Write a sequence for this structure.
């Protein structure tokens, strides 16, 4: 007789496999916050990068604790089970299920930060995150995943992994918050035309996109949370019976989203815009997220392609017609794409899926529309009320001065990019190693001279080295922008063209007394020259007086 596993052994094995799987995909979804941080940081100005990163960190930290203490209870209350917070569990392993729910909730919360970038007060954003995690999102999940309270003719609203419940809600919340806050300074002209404000790093944006795409497999595939189940015959596949369909549709929709957005951008502008391709890839993922378990293979092509294609069109409508400053395009990426995929369920649903539904495809469509309308209506009303209240008491938006200075300095007191040039060349105001500073005779006729150079930023490292070798290592460097003989260029951000006539430069100021100014000019010119228009200018000015703060020395001795 062959040995058989005891029933208790089978139950332990099944529970262990399912718990490990849920924990693994929860950690994968958590890693998506790194993607959101990079994606959003890349799409904002360099002076707002630290603020955006801080908001992402606090979204998780504040949101997940509030969801544990309050949000889970509100979810349970709305679904009809009474208020049951996260700490009120029957067994310790029930917290694995709580963590799985929490990472979904925090994804919805962090989407909003990209829409209000560059002008929202940190305290206002944190307050909204608190209320979203405590009430707004839990009401949505209580009505849907937990309660199944939205239906039509016996067909329950279906959202497999949060295409509408998580992403659609987050995108709509972001658009509403951006509308309540108003646009960034100088975003629109008096005639209503829009000005392009490019983000500071396309590299960060694309890196964040790919990290999010990687984590999305945890989002969609991970929702098939039961790997194995127990039957009379022993162990059998649980939700993994259809996990292959989920993985396939997720991958195809992702790819088609990128291609759809790139194609529409090319038709509009004649160029394949990199940021639209990246955002389109995410829109394709959002579009399929509600229905990857039900869609046919061709449905994944259709939903992903349409989700990507609508992105440039919807962003243009939001920007130019609604005149809402959605900095990171969260509505066309998450909001409209989530709505699109959710309502297309009856169009692309497989026969296998429809055989398990107690209604027609029209019944499914109406149920999906009901779900979208209820979630959108609740999200808009709640978000507008919260940001409206914050606005009424003057706590929603930073001052114009702080916005111009950048939120990194005004909200956090930091400069994300404090260094210029290469860090391996140190200047301390003294002599460089092995260099004897000239002091014979009377250089500069005994006067103090200031040499000011406006040069290309990429030549700064060579100039510092050259000045050190010339015995004049002391200098001051400032980031500036200007216009001279260098011709204007055309730039593009999300498919919109703008003119770059003020070019990024660095201003180098070097004050000398015992070093001939001509030698300093020669050192700078030789290091800065590329032979192309825009290499810069060098100016020599007399300095009337100088005083060293520490010693009180004056004149050439102070230099």
């Amino acid at each position: 007789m062959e040995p058989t596993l005891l029933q208790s052994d089978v139950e332990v094995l099944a529970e262990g496999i399912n718990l490990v799987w849920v924990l693994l995909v929860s950690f994968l979804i958590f890693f998506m916050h790194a993607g959101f941080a990079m994606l959003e940081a890349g799409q904002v100005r360099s002076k707002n990068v630290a603020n955006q990163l801080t908001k992402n960190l606090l979204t998780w930290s504040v949101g997940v604790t509030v969801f544990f203490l309050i949000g889970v209870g509100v979810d349970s209350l709305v679904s009809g089970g009474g208020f049951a917070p996260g700490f009120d569990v029957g067994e310790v392993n029930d917290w694995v299920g709580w963590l799985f729910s929490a990472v979904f909730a925090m994804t919805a919360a962090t989407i909003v930060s990209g829409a209000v970038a560059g002008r929202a007060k940190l305290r206002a954003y944190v307050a909204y995150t608190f209320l979203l995690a405590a009430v707004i999102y839990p009401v949505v999940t209580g009505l849907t995943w937990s309660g199944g309270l939205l239906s039509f003719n016996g067909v329950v609203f279906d959202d497999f992994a949060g295409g509408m419940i998580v992403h659609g809600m987050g995108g709509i919340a972001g658009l509403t918050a951006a509308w309540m806050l108003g646009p960034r300074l100088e975003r629109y002209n008096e005639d209503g035309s829009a000005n392009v404000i490019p983000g500071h790093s396309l590299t960060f944006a694309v890196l964040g996109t790919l990290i999010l795409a990687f984590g999305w497999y945890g989002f969609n595939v991970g929702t098939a949370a039961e790997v194995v189940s127990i039957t009379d015959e022993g162990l059998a596949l649980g939700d993994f019976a259809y996990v292959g369909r989920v993985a396939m549709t997720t991958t195809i929709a992702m790819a088609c989203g990128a291609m759809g957005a790139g194609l529409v951008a090319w038709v509009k502008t004649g160029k394949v815009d990199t940021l639209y391709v990246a955002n389109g890839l995410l829109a394709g993922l959002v579009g399929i997220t509600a229905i990857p378990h039900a869609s046919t293979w061709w449905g994944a092509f259709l939903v992903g392609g349409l989700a990507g294609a609508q992105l440039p069109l919807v962003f243009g409508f939001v920007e130019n017609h609604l005149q809402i400053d959605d900095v990171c395009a969260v509505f066309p990426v998450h909001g409209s794409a989530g709505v699109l995929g959710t309502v297309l369920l009856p169009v692309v649903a497989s026969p296998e899926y429809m055989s398990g539904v107690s209604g027609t495809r029209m019944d499914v469509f109406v149920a999906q529309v009901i779900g979208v309308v209820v979630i959108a209506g609740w999200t808009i009303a709640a978000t507008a009320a919260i940001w409206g209240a914050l606005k009424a008491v003057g706590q929603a938006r930073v001052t114009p001065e702080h916005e111009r200075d950048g939120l990194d300095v005004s909200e956090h007191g930091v400069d994300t990019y404090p260094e210029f040039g290469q860090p391996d060349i140190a200047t301390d105001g003294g002599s460089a190693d092995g260099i004897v500073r000239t002091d014979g005779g009377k250089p500069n006729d005994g006067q103090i001279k200031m040499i000011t150079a406006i040069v290309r930023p990429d030549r700064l490292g060579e100039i510092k080295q050259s000045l050190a070798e010339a015995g004049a290592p002391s200098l001051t460097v400032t980031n500036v922008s200007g216009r001279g003989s260098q011709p204007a260029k055309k730039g593009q951000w999300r498919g919109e063209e703008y003119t770059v006539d003020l070019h990024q430069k660095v201003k180098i100021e070097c004050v000398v007394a015992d070093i001939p100014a001509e030698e300093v000019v020669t050192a700078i010119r030789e290091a800065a020259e590329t032979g192309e228009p825009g290499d810069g200018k060098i100016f020599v000015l007399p300095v009337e007086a100088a005083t060293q703060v520490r010693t009180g020395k004056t004149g050439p001795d102070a230099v």
Q: What stands out?
A: The two ends are 97 Å apart (CA to CA). Residues 420-441 have pLDDT under 50 and may be disordered. The first helix runs from residue 7 to 30.
